[in-house]
Amino acid sequence: MNTLILNGKEPEHIKLAGELLSKGEIVGIPTETVYGLAADATDPEAVRKIFAAKGRPADNPLIVHIAALSQWAPLVQKIPEQAMRLAERFWPGPLTIILEKSDLIPMETSGGLSTVGVRFPAHPVAQAVIRAAGTPLAAPSANRSGRPSPTTFSHLRADMEGRAAALLDGGDCGVGVESTVVSLAGKRPRLLRPGGVTLSELESVLGEVDVDPAVLHRLQEGAVASSPGMKYRHYAPRAEVVLVDASPQEYANYVNREAEQSLGTYALCFEEDKPYLQCGSLSFGSRYDSAAQAHLLFFSLDRLDQLGARHVYAHMPAKRGIGLAVYNRLIRAAGFQIERPEKPVVVGLTGPSGAGKSTVGKMLQEAGWAVIDCDGLTKSPAVYDRDCIHALQTEFGEDIAPGGTLDRRLLASRALSSPGKKKRLEAIVFPHIMRALQGKMRDTIDAGYKVIVLDAPTLFEAGLDDQCDRILAVTAPWEQRLARVMQRDGLTRRQAEARFEAQHDEEFFRARADHMIRNEDQSALKAALDPILKEISDLTC
Ligand code: TXA
Ligand code: MG
Questions:
Q1: CB within 8 Å of 126: residues ≥ 6 apart
Q2: Phi, psi at residue 267, to the nearest 5°?
Q3: Residue 232, pLDDT score
Q4: Under a CB-based contact definition with an 8 Å cutoff, are residues 444 and 452 in contact?
Q5: What is the whole-number distance in angstroms between the Cα of residue 178 and the centre of ligand 2?
Q6: Which of 81, 151, 184, 412 gives 20 to 30 Å between its CA and that of 481?
Q7: d(CA 373, CA 370)
Q8: Which residue positions in the chain have pLDDT lower than 70?
Q9: Are residues 229 and 59 in contact, defined by beta-carbon separation less than 8 angstroms?
């Protein structure tokens, strides 16, 4: 088939794409999530062409795209109030809402189901094409079935040239993973596929949302899939993909070892892993930037194919926010293969002053985990060994340690006299702190602990996050934190506030922690900790 290459910036080209679609042809179109392969959703013949072009199983339903709210009602039996509230909040955007379908939707489009998923995409070119076609468009992701979805025009061409009547260039897709799919066709709202609209965003409108087991786990043999697309191997490049669940340092150790054994090994890694990696690698964003990971994921999987990768070790993404969608796609690309180095789990425990970290630390200790007080460690004699004292004397004067015993007050008065001197102090002491910490961690491992908690207010500043498999951040309401700090440290309200202003805010921690723990009252705290304890303990098996 001869495929027309069209430009989404040309109104004439959009018109032409619309004409082809209204005549029953299939056209590749950009959306804000991924490229779609579109056809008239109400025309069974046209829809069949999509399944043929993709090599898609016929029981896997298609999403129907609209460009005006008024196009929705004719496609479904009725629009419940909850559905309307979702639409008002998130449309146009990366959300697909499943409801009972009307007769206008043929069985070809719904994959034989009585329901239909509808989405109002935000991409201006997608909207213009739907308007030009004059009909809602069924459009699955425009990949060959089982392969990563295309997020760039060149990937779309590579997969679909010769298989569609036209391909419309709209540049790179912003979100990078497919839409969130939520079903309102059952008794309770159910998340079938995570995507650009996050679970907590959905819950802010719907209240509690059930998460379909297929979002996080492999379907049991013989189980019926709520979302048929979830039962197939998916999103996979040609290379074998394995997910590695480990801290940046341990992840890199693991991949470096594997790369020595086999050619064509690549790390699909985070920025933070790079300093530790010694093999071919491709970063798909910062460990703490789930939106960047989503944006780059499919592009990176495609790129690994082009690089000729044979074994890909992908670093486990955090499951917060849109990260849940990244995780959901990656475990499918990996065929659910997850590896963990046989090491104790290292958990970072951090958060702003007065949040009650030590209360949480105590509870973790009671659960049988080792908790290392990193702040306390910085003052321990293990840090100030002979080498350290000698270096300090050279910098700040012999008399700061008469007879080898440190005069902390004198050292502080000299070292804190200027920012430059303070830097020097930190540069001298820091490596000794790290060495003391390594020693302490080794002792803890020798004592048989399977989980080690690094209790560290400045976890990120000290770079300790690179050693952590999971990060927990404790927060509490501002007023409560103020009261705690004023009482504990004997500060005035103004002094305590000044201290808070100089620290990271809650958002900083939210963006980085795997789990946020709100320490407001004791019983709620226990309830919040239980599932986290379980998740992390499971890693040790
Ligand atoms: O972002 C997106 O949603 C992209 C762009 C092109 O809009 N489209 C897309 O479509 O990802 P597709 O066909 O690749 O994925 C649709 C997913 C499949 O897993 C399918 O099984 C599920 O949604 N789905 C569609 N209709 C459904 C229904 N009525 N009931 C349950 N699952 C449904
Ligand atoms: Mg797809």
A1: 29, 30, 31, 32, 36, 65, 67, 170
A2: -95, 125
A3: 61
A4: yes
A5: 7
A6: 412
A7: 10
A8: 230-233
A9: no
Show the DSSP H helices in 101-223 as ranges: 107-110, 124-133, 153-160, 199-206
Give the residue ranges of DSSP H helices in 307-418.
323-333, 357-366, 374-377, 386-396, 408-415
The identity of residue 198, as a single letter, is T
- Measured CA to CA, the distance from residue 201 to residue 181 in angstroms comes to 13
Q: 236 CA to middle of ligand 2, Å?
A: 11
Residue-wise pLDDT for 489-541, tens only, equals 999 999 999 999 999 999 999 999 999 999 988 888 999 999 999 999 999 97
Contact 132, 19 (CB under 8 A): yes
Pairwise CA distance, residues 371 & 275, whole Å: 27
The Cα–Cα gap between 99 and 102 comes to 9
DSSP code string of 10-73: -HHHHHHHHHHHHTT--EEE--SSS-EEEEETT-HHHHHHHHHHHT--TTSPPEEE-SSGGGTG
Do 457 and 350 touch, CB atoms closer than 8 A? yes
In the block, which residue shows the tokens 């086999």?
262
Q: Which amino acid is at 444?
A: T
Nearest ligand to the CA of 193 is 1
CA separation for the pair 476, 500 (Å, rounded): 12
Contact 485, 491 (CB under 8 A): yes
Taking CA atoms only, the protein residue closest to ligand 1 atom 30 is 227
Which residues have C-beta within 8 Å of that of residue 467, sequence separation ≥ 6?
247, 248, 249, 250, 346, 348, 454
Q: How far is residue 299's CA from residue 172's CA, in Å, rounded to a whole number?
A: 10
Give the nearest ligand 1 atom to 113 CA. Answer: 29
Q: Angle at CA 263, nearest 5°, toward 260 and 265?
A: 80
Is the CB of 63 within 6 Å of ligand 1?
Answer: yes
3-class secondary structure, 203: helix
How many Å is the Cα radius of gyration of the chain? 27
> What's the whole-number average pLDDT of the chain?
95
Do 305 and 319 meet the contact criterion of CB atoms below 8 Å apart?
A: no
SS3 (DSSP) at 227: coil
Cα 152 to averaged position of ligand 2 atoms, centre (Å) = 15
Name the nearest CA neighbour of 427 among 397, 457, 388, 466. 388
For the chain, how are helix, strand and coil distributed in percent, rounded to 5? 45, 15, 40
d(CA 351, ligand 2 centre) in Å: 39
Residue ranges in 378-515 assigned as alpha helix (H): 386-396, 408-415, 419-446, 478-489, 493-501, 506-512
Contacts of 288 (CB under 8 A, 6+ apart): 318, 511, 512
The identity of residue 49, as a single letter, is: K
Cα separation, 143 vs 156, in Å, equals 7
Ligand 1 binding pocket mutation candidate from 50, 107, 181 (most atoms within 8 A of CB): 181
What digits encode the pLDDT tens for the residues 403-431?
Answer: 889 999 999 999 989 999 999 999 999 99
Q: If 0-12 CB within 10 Å is exposed, 13-18 middle and 19+ buried, where does residue 201 land?
A: middle
> pTM of the full predicted structure?
0.94
